[in-house]
Amino acid sequence: MKVRRALTAVAITTGLVFTVAGCGGGGDGDDTKATESSPAKSDKADKEKAEPESPAEEKVLAEVTGGKSITLTITSAVRDEGGFLTVNGKVKNGGTSRWVPVSWNGSEKELTGNGASLAGANVVDKVGKKRYLILRDTEGRCLCTNFRGGFAAGEERTWFAQFPAPPDSATTVDFQIADMPPATIEISEGE
């Protein structure tokens, strides 16, 4: 029994040694070339992961400045098949002190629990003469970005807001929020 265990251990050890030696490469001929080229591929893949391609320039649909040097930029307005209009952009505090967009949460009682957010935003279809308020869930939370903690001086953040989509005939709408001037934006169709 002891002899069998010893022979089994020797056989397993020998198999492992040959396996490790086989994986190590270092031979001559085609094996060396394959081993040498593999790290190059790996290095290239690692560099691609570490250095992502620079994003394409964002298209600016509209930009307005108001209040205390606050700049609101709109980069997209997409009408989804589900009947939603999703607006995206950036907000930048160009002032010298912290800014909290409390007035942006809107005056509707249902929206008061949204804090400093885009809950008070709306879009206006001037041709159809209709205003669309921000969408909200069953608990009154807006389908929009909440700016917890406000903005430090010079800080910029991205945002989104969702509205019911105006009819297909509406190709432009005015985005409005609090004391900011209205921003006319062109609607694009989603996929």
Main sheet makeup: 5 strands, mixed
Radius of gyration: 30 Å
Which structural class should the secondary elements be placed in? alpha+beta
CATH topology of the largest domain: Immunoglobulin-like
Shape: globular
- Multimer state: single chain
Uncertain residue ranges: 31-42, 44-55
Helix content: 10-25%
**Total of DSSP H or I helical runs spanning 4+ residues:** 2
Beta-strand percentage range = 25-35%
- Give the second-level CATH assignment, the architecture of the largest domain: Sandwich
What's the CATH class of the largest domain, please?
A: Mainly Beta
For the residues shown, what is the average pLDDT? 79
Series of secondary-structure elements, N-terminal to C-terminal: HHEEEEEEEEE
What is the total domain count?
2
Distance between the termini: 71 Å
Report on the architecture of this protein:
Strand 1 and strand 2 form a beta hairpin. Helices cover 23% and strands 28% of the residues. It is α+β, with helices and mostly antiparallel strands and 191 residues long. The longest helix has 22 residues, at 2-23. It is built from two helices and nine strands. It has helices at residues 2-23, 30-50, and strands at 62-66, 70-79, 84-93, 122-125, 130-133, 156-164, 172-176, 183-186, 188-189. It has two domains: 2-50, no CATH class; 62-189, Immunoglobulin-like. Strands 1, 2, 3, 6 and 9 form a five-stranded mixed β-sheet that branches. A four-stranded antiparallel β-sheet has the order 5-4-7-8, with no helix packed on it. It comes from Streptomyces indicus. Residues 41-61 have a biased composition (Basic and acidic residues). This is Lipoprotein.
